[in-house]
């Protein structure tokens, strides 16, 4: 007698996939390493709105094409070289919340002398809104109290960008 051996494959819905904590940590470290490499590559002196936009796009390549508003900050040293950066907020298609605390805490930790702010407009229109101007004013006031100057606020919309400093919105 030759009995049939039956094996039953588990259904996909019954299989619970768990990731090894070591694998998860390795992935986190890989992402952090890639961010550090991008930051190191972006250490050029930021001397113009074009250079600022390029530095933001080097650190956050999807900033120009994201379908949700993202606010990023670059930390600058006394020679206006990038010493770090932070993604501060991810919002909706038309708005995002930004608190000065979230902008300046990592800037203080990085030892920044000044900062550059950038956010994207998923609409593709780089014209600043009233809210953009109010946010910039609020961040400048907070920065003044902390001794960290807000150098510029760049709005990135697809292949174009706009500098609030060039528009005279920074005083």
Labels describing this entry:
single chain; 171 residues; alpha+beta; 4 helices; globular
Textual characterization of the structure:
There is one protein chain. This protein is α+β, with helices and mostly antiparallel strands and 171 residues long. 35% of the residues lie in helices and 21% in strands. It has 4 helices and 5 strands. Strands 2-1-3-4-5 form a 5-stranded mixed sheet, with helices on both faces. It is globular, with a radius of gyration of 22 Å.
Give the arrangement of secondary structure elements:
Layout: H1 21-41, H2 49-59, E1 70-76, E2 82-90, H3 100-110, E3 114-120, H4 130-146, E4 149-157, E5 160-163
Parallel strand pairs: 3-4
Antiparallel strand pairs: 1-2, 1-3, 4-5
Concise structural overview:
The chain has helices at 21-41, 49-59, 100-110, 130-146, and strands at 70-76, 82-90, 114-120, 149-157, 160-163. With 171 residues, the protein is of the alpha+beta class.
Work out the number of β strands: 5
Radius of gyration: 22 Å
**Could you tell me how far the N terminus lies from the C terminus, measured between alpha carbons in angstroms?**
94 Å
Overall average residue pLDDT: 86
Strand order of the largest sheet: 2-1-3-4-5
**Class per helix and strand makeup:** alpha+beta
- Poorly predicted residue ranges: none
Helix content: 25-40%
Please state roughly what percent of the residues sit in beta strands, choosing from under 5%, 5-15%, 15-25%, 25-35%, 35-45% or over 45%: 15-25%
| Main sheet properties | 5 strands, mixed
Helix run count: 4
H/E element sequence: HHEEHEHEE
Choose one word for the global shape: globular
């Amino acid at each position: 007698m030759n009995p049939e051996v039956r094996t039953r494959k588990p259904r996909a819905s019954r299989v619970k996939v768990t990731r090894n904590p070591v694998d998860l940590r390795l992935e986190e470290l890989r992402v952090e390493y890639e961010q550090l490499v991008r930051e190191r590559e972006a250490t050029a002196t930021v001397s113009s709105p074009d250079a600022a936009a390029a530095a933001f796009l080097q650190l956050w390549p999807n900033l120009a094409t994201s379908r949700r508003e993202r606010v990023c900050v670059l930390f600058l040293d006394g020679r206006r070289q990038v010493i770090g950066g932070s993604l501060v907020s991810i919002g909706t298609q038309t708005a995002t919340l930004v608190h000065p605390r979230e902008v300046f805490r990592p800037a203080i930790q990085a030892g920044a002398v000044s900062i550059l702010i950038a956010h994207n407009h998923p609409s593709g229109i780089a014209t600043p809104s009233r809210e953009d101007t109010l946010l910039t004013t609020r961040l400048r006031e907070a920065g003044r109290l902390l001794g960290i100057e807000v150098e510029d606020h760049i709005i990135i919309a697809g292949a174009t960008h706009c500098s609030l400093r060039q528009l005279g919105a920074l005083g």
